[in-house]
């Protein structure tokens, strides 16, 4: 394992935060981009700036062994917002990585990129993948499904619903999930040069046949120790809820019309043929165990 630092974006987010912890345990130095000043952390050099600050990106990539690009825009008011955050930002980072002769670019995309016509978010992630593929740099693209684990605020709402005994779900369908620590282990493995250049990986918990929405809701109920009922919401109801959320919470809305279209798609399971080869990576955390540990963490922190 190289002792040159890894350049990381999105280090102040949920997945990035887990990467900082696991890299520290492995003794892997990091150089991380941040928009705001951060407290000192052992093994981490902070570079203040963003994906449109070319001087900061040059400093981020200087001397780096590889780039792990986690940062991205999940919610935006329009196409331009997604384009700026997910496409232009990725292109800027690719330019900096090439200029600094970084050996590998690990790009964290999304399963949403598989269905670009469904949402502005998915379309922007698909375009970011194209930018990586055509940049002329050694690269691997990882498409995570829903990511959960201690510290995640996105799936927290599902745990709260399960604790109340009723989980409201999109229309019936299938989904894949992965624990953040498993995703991070894969990213670090790829950043160390394992896996051939040009790989497109869809990673999950290797649950056979993926999870049905109802099956996942029941697993949440077991994790919080409650008997849980499920309610599948028709598409028009989900879309109407998104309209109301945007109306009342504006840019802070969780369920935007764009996300509603994404949620209502019936199949967000990974393609088994795109799972990583077992010799490269195998998930270590079974989802029932991971959900239980996450629920325990939420309770210890007073979130649940």
Automatic annotation (TrEMBL):
Top-rank lineage group of the source organism: Bacteria
InterPro entries in alphabetical order: Epimerase_deHydtase, NAD(P)-bd_dom_sf, NAD(P)-dependent_oxidoreduct
Domain spans labelled NAD-dependent epimerase/dehydratase: 7-192
Coiled-coil residues: none
An annotated Gene Ontology molecular function: aldehyde dehydrogenase (NAD+) activity
Pfam families in alphabetical order: Epimerase (PF01370)
Cellular compartments per GO CC: cytoplasm
Name of the molecule in the record: NAD-dependent epimerase/dehydratase family protein
């Amino acid at each position: 394992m190289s002792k040159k630092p890894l350049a990381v974006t999105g280090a102040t987010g949920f997945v990035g935060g887990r990467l900082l912890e696991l890299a520290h345990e492995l003794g892997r130095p990091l150089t991380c981009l941040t928009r705001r000043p951060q407290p000192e952390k052992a093994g981490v050099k902070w570079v203040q700036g963003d994906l449109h600050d070319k001087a900061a990106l040059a400093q981020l990539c200087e001397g780096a062994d590889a780039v792990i690009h986690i940062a991205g825009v999940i919610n935006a008011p329009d196409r331009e917002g997604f384009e700026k955050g997910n496409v232009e930002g990725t292109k800027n980072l690719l330019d900096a990585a090439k200029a600094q002769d970084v050996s590998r670019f690990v790009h964290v995309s999304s399963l949403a990129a598989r269905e670009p016509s469904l949402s502005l978010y998915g379309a922007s992630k698909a375009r970011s993948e194209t930018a990586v593929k055509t940049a002329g740099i050694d690269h691997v693209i990882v498409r995570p499904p829903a990511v959960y684990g201690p510290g995640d605020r996105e799936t927290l709402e599902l745990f709260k619903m399960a604790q109340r005994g009723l989980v409201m779900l999109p229309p019936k369908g299938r989904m894949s999930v992965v624990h953040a620590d498993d995703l991070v282990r894969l990213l670090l493995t790829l950043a160390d040069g394992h896996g051939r250049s040009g790989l497109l990986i869809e990673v999950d918990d290797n649950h056979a046949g993926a999870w049905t929405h109802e099956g996942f809701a029941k697993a949440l109920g077991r994790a919080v120790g409650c008997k849980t009922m499920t309610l599948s919401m028709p598409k028009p109801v989900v879309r109407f809820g998104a309209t109301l959320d945007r109306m009342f919470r504006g840019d802070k809305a969780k369920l935007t019309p764009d996300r509603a279209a994404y949620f209502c798609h019936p199949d967000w399971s990974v393609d088994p043929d795109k799972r990583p080869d077992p010799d490269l990576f195998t998930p270590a955390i079974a989802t029932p165990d991971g959900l239980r540990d996450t629920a325990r963490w939420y309770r210890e922190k007073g979130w649940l």
